[in-house]
Every structure is written in structure tokens, then in C-alpha cells.
Amino acid sequence: MPFVAAWRVNLISACLAEGGVIAYPTEGVWGLGCLPESAEAVARILRLKRRSWEQGLLLVAADISQFEDYLVGLDDDMRGELENNWPGAVTYLLPDNGAAPRWVIGNNSTVGLRVSDHPVVCALCESVGPLVSTSANVTGHPAALTSLQVRQYFGDDIDQMVPGQLGRSDGPSVIRHLETGEKIR
Length: 185
What we know:
By secondary structure, the chain is an alpha/beta fold. The chain has one domain (6-177): DHBP synthase. The chain is built from seven helices and eight strands, in the order αββαβααβαβαβαββ. The protein has an eight-stranded mixed β-sheet with strand order 7-1-2-6-3-5-4-8. A hairpin with a 4-residue loop joins strand 1 (22-25) and strand 2. The longest helix is centred in the first third of the chain and has 12 residues, at 6-17. It starts with 5 loop residues before the first helix and ends in an 8-residue tail after the last strand. The mean pLDDT is 94.
């Protein structure tokens, strides 16, 4: 696992299992993350970002197989679209089939999913499974491009800062609606 030592992944995994919030480099910006099953950790991220729960959050994984529960009910064409574009910096909004916790999807009828090709994200997700992934910024401010910017936004309110470099994308991931093909961001 390049860029992140195994001992550090174990430390971060333990932090996440205890309901921790982490900051980590992604394809194009720094992200905040936690385990999606932890309503308290998700609520903490929303408070840090000053973001409404109603907007929902995205999930990131290391491999499409980590999202199997979320993919139940998709037809072959939709599944093929995902397989053709993952891994990469493309987030898809899929119809919510009930697998995602309400505190993750908010007031949406979709769930946002991305399979990352970033080595740090992959190492974390291989260890703990899918993570909540949202840009490291206060709502209305630019996403952090450095760990220093993350610290400026959130100080010591982050439990673990995962070392690493951003990937090659310019900015946050593209977001597409799987059923309509509409580009949201």
C-alpha cells in the first residue's frame, strides 16, 4: 500500500471504528471521512462543515465489490456504466435501495458512490470498507488543497490527519446522475 504505512492504516482504522473523523487526501482535494454506520461521526462532520444533514454525503470505496449492497436493483446497463468509469474521480448518484443510512443520504432519493483510484483512499477502504467522503472545507469556502488548509479550517477537531498527496484531478470529483446521465458537478 503506497504512501501509507500499514501501522498507520491500522491506527486510523481503529480511530474510525471508535467513531473518529479523519482528514485524508483524495483525487483532487482533501476530504473528511468517517464510517457511514456511525451516525455520531457523520453528525460531527456535518457540524464541522456547517452543512445540513438534508444535503446528504457521498461514500467512497476501494473496489466496486464494496458497494454490492447499494447496487442491488440496478440493470446491466447501469452496472456497466459504473464498471466502465470506476475506479476514478467520478461520483455517481444511484437510486437509494434502502442500503444507505438515512443520515448519509439526507433528504435524497439517491446515494452518491465513488470507487477511488487514489492509493491512500484505497488503503483506508481496503482496511475498513466504504467511507463517508466529503470535501474538507466549511460550507461556502473552497475545498482544502493542503493539510495546512485542513488545519486552518478545523484545528484540532479532526481525530487523525492521514498523510499523503492529492491525486491528479483538478478539484472535487465529477458527480453524475446514473439514471439520467446529467452532470451535477
